Amino acid sequence: MRQSIVKFKYKLNKNSSFFDELKLNKIKVQQSIVTFGKIARKQHLYDICLETLNKIHRKPSVPIIDCFLKVKQEIKCYINTYEYLSSKQSKEILDLIEATNLQYFTKENVAELISLKAQFLQLNNKFDEANHLYSFSIYLNDSSAKLWGAWADYLTQAFVDVTSRQLYSSRSIEAAESALIGLMNAARHTGGEAKTRKYIAKIFWLLSYDNEKRDLFNQFEAHALSSIPAQNWIQWIPQLITLILKNDDNGKYLYGLINQIIRQYPLAVYYPLRTLYFKIKQDEHADKIKQQIFSQQKQQAETQADFKETKINSSVESLVRGVVGLMHVQREMHPLLFNTIEGLIDQLLMLKCTWHQDLLKNFRHTLNYVYTFAYETNLKKKCQSLSSAKLCNKSAKPMV
C-alpha cells in the first residue's frame, strides 16, 4: 500500500510540473505575438502588425499585461497611419478606443492609454479634448517621463502654430511656459543623463523665444535647480554660462545651479569658462582695432561712433565681470586643484621644440617632398610611354 501511495504522489507531482510548463509556454507564445507585432510596427509594416495582434484573441486565456500591450500597439499603428485614413475610419477607430474596458488595468497603464488617445485626438484637430486628456493622464501618473514629454510636445506644437500666425511681439507665451515646465518634469523623471538630452535640448530651444519680461527664463530658473540633478547638466555647461551672462540681473537661482555643478564636477565648468574668458578678451582687442580703423576712416560721424563704442564696451565689461566672478567662485571652492591646473597649463604653453627636433622635422618634410616628387615623375613617364605605344599600334598597318 505504501509503495502505491508513493507512486501516486510521484505521478501527481509530474503532472503538476507538466501543466505549469504548459502555462508558461502559453504565456511565452502570447508575449512573442506582441513583440512580433511591435517589431512589425517599427518596420512600418502596419498591416502585418494588426493581423498578428488580432491572433491573441484566439487563445483561451490572455493575461492583462498582454491585452494592454496589444491595445497600445494598435493605437500606435493608427497614429502612424493617420495620413492614409478617411474621416469615417478615424471615427470608427475613436469608437474602438473609447470602447476599451479600462477597469482591469493599473493606473499607470490607463494613463498611458489615455495619452495615446489624446495624441489621436490631436491629429483629428480636437485640441481641447486632447489637452484635457493629457492633463488627466498626468494626474493619474505624475512620475512618468513619457506622459510629461507627450504633453510638452503638444504644447510646443501649439506654441509654434500660434507663433507662425502672429508677429513676434504679440506671441502668447503661456503655452511655452507650460511646455517648459513639462519638459523639466520629463527630464527629472527619466533614468539617466543620456535620456534627458532630448528634453534639455528642447528647453534651450524654447528659451530662445523668450520675451522682454523674461517669463520663460524665470520659469526655467525656478524649476531647474529643484527638478533636474546636477549630473545631467554637464553636457550643457556652455549653454548655462551664456544664459547666466545674458541674464546677470535675474540669475540668482541659476548661479546656485552652477555652484552645485562646480562643487561636484569642477573641471567640467573650469575649461569652458577659461576658453570663454580668453575668447572675450580676444574679441575685445579685435573690436578696439576695428574701432580705431573706423574712426580714422570716418571722422565726420563722431557722436554716433562714440555712442556705439560706449554700448559695446559696457556689454563686454559685463560679460568679463560675470566670467571673472564665476572663476573666482571656482578658485574659492577648489583652490589647490585650480592652482595645479594653471601650473600645468603654463608649463604646456612654455614647451617648445629644441633645435635638433626642428631639424629632424625639416628633414622629414623634405624627405616626404622628395618621395612625392619621384612618384609623380615616374607616373608621368609611364603615362607618356603608354600613350606613345598606343600611337605606334594605331599607326602600324596590318600585313596583307
Output the keywords:
single chain; 400 residues; mainly alpha; extended
Topology of helices and strands:
Blueprint: H1 2-42, H2 46-54, H3 64-80, H4 87-99, H5 107-123, H6 127-140, H7 145-165, H8 174-189, H9 197-207, H10 215-227, H11 237-246, H12 252-264, H13 266-297, H14 302-333, H15 335-350, H16 355-395
Helix pairs in contact: 1-2, 1-3, 2-3, 3-5, 5-6, 5-7, 6-7, 7-8, 8-9, 8-10, 10-12, 11-14, 12-13, 13-14, 14-15
Q: From the alpha-carbon coordinates, what is the Rg to the nearest angstrom?
A: 35 Å
How many β-strand runs? 0
Largest sheet: none
Structural class call reads: mainly alpha
What form results from the Cα inertia axes? Answer: extended
Mean pLDDT: 77
Helix content: over 70%
In DSSP terms, counting alpha (H) and pi (I) runs of 4 or more, how many helices? 16
Strand % is under 5%
Residue runs with pLDDT of under 50 for 5 or more positions: 5-12, 164-170, 303-312
End-to-end span in angstroms?
115 Å
> Element order, helices and strands?
HHHHHHHHHHHHHHHH
GO cellular component, one term: nucleus
Domain FAT: 1-279
InterPro entries: DDR_Repair_Kinase, PIK-rel_kinase_FAT, PIK_FAT
GO biological process, one term: DNA repair
